[in-house]
Specification:
There is one protein chain. With 453 residues, this protein is α+β, with helices and mostly antiparallel strands. It contains 10 helices and 8 strands. The strands form 3 sheets. Strands 2-5-7-8 form a 4-stranded antiparallel sheet, with no helix packed on it. A two-stranded parallel ribbon has the order 1-6. The chain is elongated and about 145 Å long. The N terminus is likely disordered.
Amino acid sequence: MKNYFWSLCFYSVFILSAYGQDTPVSSQYSFTLEEAVEFALENSYQSINARRDVAKALKRKWEATADGLPQINGSVDYQNQLKQPVTLIPSEFFGGEEGTFSPVIFGVKQQLSATATLSQLIFDGSYLVGIEAAKSYSQYTDDVAEKTQLEVRKGVINAYGNVLVAQESVKILKNNIAALDKNYQETKTIFENGLAEEEDVEQLQITLLQIQNQLSNTERLEKIAMQMFNLSLGVDINSNTVLSDTLESLSMKKMEKSIVDKPFAIENNIDYRLAELFTEQTRLELKLEKSRALPSLSAFVNYGTTAFDNDFVFLESETPWFQSSILGASLNIPIFSSLRRSARTQQAKIADKQAKTDFLRTQQEIQLRYDTAISDFKFSIESYDTAKQNLGLAERIEKKNQIKYSEGLGSSFELRQAQLQLYSSQDEMLNAMLNIINKKAELETILNTPNTK
């Protein structure tokens, strides 16, 4: 019995441990920027719904096509005349008195019929236009999906950069606090020994408290930035995600300027293609209104069978059934609509002209966005070079003031100013690197060059 008990315990522990190995406690991810973009293009919420929109467009295209293909419909009708209608006929037909009428009931109380009808559209101008419109809509959906992918990519790059900036800010602030705290403790000790003024201690304490408060806020922002990054990927916002790229290495990659020298083919811009498709849509709407003046022709053939009786005997094999079949065609010719069709056509013409004007405006806006993106990207590189030089200068100035203060040649106020200048330069450096990443992503989106190199 004891051996059985221990065997059972060992088996239970083995099963639980095996189950625990197959069931992760929490989701964990590690991404370079390129891997993050690829993951988001497949798994982000926007990408998933964009693929569904494409699937719907394909179904809509077939729906429009199917309207012109053979249609088969069936119907089953059952009638039970609870109170049959009565018809009066002259009584003389039955040998009765002339001038009088006798009530007569025609037919039977119950009837069951089954009919199948095959219909085929032979010609309809609006159907032909509908086929064109369905193809155009399918292309429009594909382009919208491509635009979504570009926006997802840009969003992931921005979110990735924000996380890296937040992480670097936390590291820098912690280093600054460590150096400040060392200065503060040393100055406090000197003051307690009567060799420094109380103001020197207070100046350092003010700076230390400010940086500590800034660190607390930055740590909270780092968590929020990571949650936003997880959201852009399409994973749980509280997933444990590690970023493999560093801010400096990523900004150096993005600083490559060959993209500026590439010719701008506006036809590749996704907004240009969407605007062009919109003009195609208004053209088709005009064509549709014109087609309404054309005749339409359709044909049909049906086959039916019917049974009659006073009782419900339609499921019995002896019940006689009577067949019927009809072949027909229908030609609909629009003749006069009190100029209603003309008014609709004129409206469509005006809308088509408006779309063409909007298309020209869109081209100018895209060109302006491109020129602005080029300028912003170049400026981000120039700002980085300036921020790098300023940071070097600020570090040297802060170091000199540290030496002067420790030797009693400088005041605590001068040291505080140098430290604040250094911290500001550090922030400018981080923002400069982030701007390079974001401005490059914006330029790549306009050029429709989705690569992460």
